[in-house]
Amino acid sequence: MKLTELFTQPDPDFGKAMTALLEHFHHSDDSQAPYQRGSFTHQLDQSCMPAIGISPRDYLARLTTLVPGASHLTSPRYMGHMTAPLPAFTAELSRLLVMLNQNPMKMESSRLLSFLEREVLAKLHRLVYREDDAFYAAHMHAKDAALGVMTSGGTIANVTALWLARNRACGDNLFALAGQGYRGAVILGSRLMHYSFDKGMDLLGLGARSVWRLDTDEHNRLSLAALEQALQQCREQKLKVLALVGVAGSTDFGSVDPLPELAAIARREQIHFHVDAAWGGPTLFSPRYQGLLTGIEHADTVTLDGHKQLLVPLGTGMLLCRQPDLMMTVKREAPYAIRATSFDQGRFTLEGTRPANALYLDAAFQMLGQQGYAQLIDANYDRARRMAALIDASPAFELMSAPVMNLLSYRCIPSHLQGQEPDVATNEEINLFNVALQKAQRAEGHSFVSRTQRAVSRYGEQPLTLLRAVLLNPLIEEADIRALLDDQVRLGSQIASQLFE
Ligand SMILES: *Cc1c(COP(=O)(O)O)cnc(C)c1O
Asked: pTM score, two decimals?
């Protein structure tokens, strides 16, 4: 085959085989391929590249060995992570987007799609900040303005927020803080803050010790008393607070920090207020649940993830800025590509070349509409409440936090410990039991939840192993939830007999 044919002659059989692979994958579960690192590394142990390429048809043979080893994230019994099944139109849309291969970092390489980013960002800005038509008409496409930036995910959005907050406080020169009488700089947030904030402060040269993770209350919300105390400490130690972080949908519990109070404190102290709504942001679509996010409209910056509850492919995150000129504090230019006089988004994005994933958001906005998102959110949040009720009603389980959004944390209690008040030693036993249970369920591959380790106020500071369910898949039915819990009870009794006898 001539190499140029690879570019000009699509193989129709290849496309059909791809569809068949996907169909087959969607109708199976993780039990097909055992979760064993040893077998994965054994299967993929070739470090030499082939000297001569094979045909797409021959490559299919390799694909059929790789695909069944992937995670069945779209199975309605897979409730463990924040990855969703995608609307079916995504398959064709992604073909279009990938083959257009646009780069919205600069206008020259994306033309109209660069402005599509701005339009998509304006729609989400409006969802969060509710400015009027005149505001969006003035700023949406203005040259030295940005209502936000697209990122590859929530992590880069959070890091970008810290970058903005740092430059707002002292430009790109941390030593300028010394000139203002400070001896260091920190950010403040709850102990449930995402670990991307540690990465961001590390990159800014401030290190993990500059991330102050403060206590939470019994509802897993940042404690205002702890915050006031930390602010006092910062004043005494002459530490500049670069940002106050509010979490709107914590990764473990879906809890929301007291945003109106945090906004008021940030305003009083003149601190950059960032809200991490990577998970919880789309709650705003739901008239029933949007009250959970009251106060988010006061945030200077807000992180959203498209690839979580907005149901678009991975690699789609955003940082929104309340004020359109904030982004100018991190403006950078490059003579060969990103000119000072240009409209290029690349002037502010941390990332350079990026895919034009705004098209996925545009398609979902147009085809689902606000109402479609509201229905999906309501159904998922209701499902979490139903699952919580099932857990609460069974002595085999202990619900570890009341559902706020659609994340649940709970644990399984072995039968000989049911109906007791666990002490520290008993909790240790229950921890071991839940680790073994989660691994056994994962290995069996019929249903799945993830696990985390957190203290919950009921048991003081002791770290507890928690099972974590994410109710994101719109196809989850009550029968799936019951089946998942039944699997845990069945596996639990096997594990208890191994562990405790
Ligand atoms: C998922 C998540 C992040 C990180 O987002 P990525 O897209 O995984 O980089 C940050 N914060 C919260 C609250 C999240 O749920």
From this structure: 0.95
